[in-house]
Amino acid sequence: MEFSNKTLAWFVLAAIVVSLTGTIISLNGTGITGYASNNKTGNASVTIQSQTTLNFAVGAIDFGTGTVNGTAPFACNLSNNMSNTIQKIGNCDGFNTTLTGTNGWLQIENIGNTKVNVSLNFSATALTFIGGGLAASAPLPQLFFMAINNESGSCPADVNVTSMTWTNVTSTASFYPICWGNQGLLSLPTTNSMAIGINITIPYDAAGTKVLTIQASGSN
Amino acid sequence: MDNNTPANDLSGNQKGISNSTIAVLVILALVMTIIGTLAVINTNNNIGPTSSYSNNLGKVSFQILSSQPIAHGTESIPNETK
Predict the structure, then answer these.
(1) Residue A30: what pLDDT?
(2) Is A211 within 8 Å of B60 when comparing Cβ atoms?
(3) Does the complex come out with an ipTM higher than 0.90?
(4) Four-residue CA torsion sign, A218, A210, A201, A135
(5) Distance CA A129, CA A88 (A)
């Protein structure tokens, strides 16, 4: 059985009308009401997908500009503390005395809607970030970090490997876990952030402008 | 009737709708269907990707100027008149 082109055209026009009608009904959101039966129970459902989003609420620490005042074996040690100041130990001249931000530490927060395990990756080690330490009498540069709860209970201590201890950054290929385990970093509104402190030792023979990038990664 | 019959025969009488016209209509039907499908998708409350990193990079910086050596060893004593 063959249809004439005219018949086919009518079929196509009918398809267009049906499609257009369906589109209008969908856009209006009304649908076809149909016959109202005795069963008046309706179901509304929505699916919320899990989402993990890490965000540096405080994303920069600037120790400022200064010098290591002295020669071998002198060095300057700088670290940030919770009182929004920079602690200086050794032969430090200059450098900042206060830090900007909420409490002077980097702050990483989970602004998703589910827990997440968090680790940090560093773009450089002490040797490539700070430099120096080349002279026979020069101390070696050092780079440490520490991660603690910024909001109490954010990381329910499944594994918080760096809690209150300084961890030496020895590899740029490593991802250092700071909150790991069954619970991970929570996503509750006021219980979802950790603070990251930095501790560096600058030998007297280091020089130049230094920038280190820290990448936070998450997994469920 | 031949489906490939042109719009007009040799005498000029209309014989039907050409296949090209039908093709245009079919394309129109497809476009309308796609628009309708997109409209339905956009009206659903879809949540975004399951994992994202909006701002996951921190920075630590400082600058070291030239060191200022401290003099060591015996202090130079000016010559006195002997």
Answers:
(1) 52
(2) yes
(3) no
(4) positive
(5) 19
